């Protein structure tokens, strides 16, 4: 804020009508940013025809509605409340919101008030009277600091860019939330899959311990050879080793899930298998174009593209003159009691214009830089769309083929169970060697473990499809902002 040279140094608008007129000019200025057009989709117009079904928007299916397992719902809720990465993403949104507010304030004048006193002494040899002079000056007023009138839309373009960056950050937060839900769900299902495999391993260990006890007794009475006993013991130790490996894997998986949640959680081992029908709601994917509004990462990439487009407008406006206003209005007097007396008013009205002439190519290169960054943003947007399309296509294919693989694995397990029964029966009747029984039991354990792993992969494909389609994004709507009106939809007040 400038000081009044001889009378008053506080700045303010001299007349309200002038301010109103200037405000109209500012809000009515046109942006020099190029017109924005959403890039065409660099992907096919449909997914694989044999797996696509039309349905309701997956974005409208909240995670509580899709994941129907009560315990899984509890775990996801804990993660959303405590995960540190998600907390950081929320803080980044707040940071972007504050940055947008700072940039938006540049559109409006800065008005301040001040009061001051100046006292000075002039030596006798510098005074025409030959005597030292002591003078006083008192001043009070309002002032308008240097305020750029945005004729060319430079400040407006910068504000647009800040707004789009804020919206991109908020969309990134929503993408992080969806990703966290998917990670927690997959980690939980992996834990339950290990519980199921551990249960099967323990059953196998118990069965083989009993077989080892029986064969030990048979060796003692001479009804079988020690070779058969060693084979039974080998099967037992293999099952025991598998059990220990699975227990170790469960401990590591539990620790990984705890880290994702960000808080202590009690998840004791469970018996039985995870029922797909009681875990997920059925999904019916729509068209690839639906991803443009359902996938937060695509939304974020488009906001970044819009921000880059707005920055071009600011770079173009830098080639034109800048017009600024500085004004003040107040009172000044040599005596304190005369500060508000008649005739003490003092004012300054100081418009200025600056025209760039030569800057060594700085503005030209800045414009080139913004154009290159826009092209990069277009490329990033297209890549994001392509990645999203692949995520959905992969999840759809995985769901389709894993369903068939699970069916085959169930048939294989049924076959192995019957084979093991028949092998034992033939051995008991002396029709086959004991090695056939051992091979059948070994293959039976492998078939049981394989079925659990395949079912676990199928369950994971359901989670991946939900996340790939932007599932539950409605649950992670923009954080309410009291100082930024309706920013979630890209609207704003002038």
- How many helices does DSSP assign? 10
The CATH topology comes to Outer membrane efflux proteins (OEP)
What CATH first level would be assigned? Mainly Alpha
Q: Would you report the number of β strands?
A: 4
Strand content: 5-15%
Q: Main sheet: which strands, in order across?
A: 1-2-3-4
CATH homologous superfamily caption: Outer membrane efflux proteins (OEP)
Amount of helix: 55-70%
| Series of secondary-structure elements, N-terminal to C-terminal | HHHHEEHHHHEEHH
User: What's the overall average pLDDT, rounded?
Assistant: 83
Poorly predicted sequence stretches spanning 5 or more consecutive residues: 1-28, 480-494
CATH architecture: Up-down Bundle
Q: Looking at the structure, what is the overall shape?
A: elongated
Largest sheet: 4 strands, antiparallel
């Amino acid at each position: 804020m400038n000081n009044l040279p001889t009378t008053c140094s506080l700045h303010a608008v001299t007349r309200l009508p002038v301010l109103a007129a200037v405000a109209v000019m500012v809000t009515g200025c046109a942006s020099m940013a190029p017109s924005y057009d959403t890039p065409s989709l660099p992907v096919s117009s449909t997914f694989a025809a044999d797996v696509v079904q039309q349905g309701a928007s997956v974005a409208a299916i909240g995670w509580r509605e899709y994941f129907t397992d009560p315990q899984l719902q509890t775990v996801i809720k804990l993660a959303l409340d405590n995960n540190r990465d998600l907390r950081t993403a929320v803080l980044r949104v707040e940071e972007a919101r504050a940055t947008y507010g700072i940039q938006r304030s540049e559109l409006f004048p800065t008005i301040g008030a001040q009061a001051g006193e100046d006292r000075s002494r002039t030596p006798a040899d510098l005074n025409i009277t030959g005597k030292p002079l002591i003078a006083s000056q008192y001043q009070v007023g309002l002032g308008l600091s240097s305020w750029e009138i945005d004729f060319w839309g430079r400040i407006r373009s910068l504000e647009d860019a800040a707004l789009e960056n804020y919206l991109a950050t908020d969309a990134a937060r929503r993408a992080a939330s969806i990703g966290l839900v998917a990670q927690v769900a997959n980690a939980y299902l992996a834990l339950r899959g290990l519980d199921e495999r551990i249960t099967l391993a323990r059953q196998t260990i118990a069965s083989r311990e009993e077989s080892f006890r029986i064969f030990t007794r048979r060796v003692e009475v001479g009804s079988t050879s020690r070779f058969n006993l060693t084979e039974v013991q080998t099967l037992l130790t293999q099952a025991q080793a598998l059990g220990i490996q699975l227990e170790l894997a469960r401990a590591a998986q539990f620790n990984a899930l705890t880290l994702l949640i960000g808080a202590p959680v009690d998840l004791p081992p469970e018996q039985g298998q995870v029922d797909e029908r009681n875990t997920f709601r059925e999904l019916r994917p729509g068209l690839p174009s639906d991803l443009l509004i359902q996938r937060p990462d695509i939304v974020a990439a488009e906001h970044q593209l819009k921000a880059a487009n707005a920055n071009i407008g600011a770079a173009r406006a830098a080639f034109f003159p800048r017009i600024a206003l500085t004004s003040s209005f107040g009172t000044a007097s040599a005596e304190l009691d005369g500060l508000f007396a008649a005739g003490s008013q003092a004012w300054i009205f100081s418009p200025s214009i600056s025209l760039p002439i030569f800057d060594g190519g700085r503005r030209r290169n800045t414009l080139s830089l913004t154009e290159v960054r826009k092209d990069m943003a277009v490329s990033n947007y297209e890549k994001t769309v392509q990645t999203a399309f692949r995520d959905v296509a992969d999840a759809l294919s995985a769901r389709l083929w894993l369903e068939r693989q699970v069916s085959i694995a169930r048939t294989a397990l049924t076959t192995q169970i019957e084979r093991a029964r028949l092998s034992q029966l033939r051995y008991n009747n002396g029709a086959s060697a004991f090695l056939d029984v051992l091979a059948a039991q070994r293959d039976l354990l492998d078939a049981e473990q394989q079925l659990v792993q395949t079912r676990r992969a199928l369950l994971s494909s359901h989670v991946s499809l939900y996340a790939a389609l932007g599932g539950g994004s409605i649950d992670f709507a923009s954080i309410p902002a009291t100082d930024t009106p309706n920013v979630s939809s890209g609207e704003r007040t002038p």
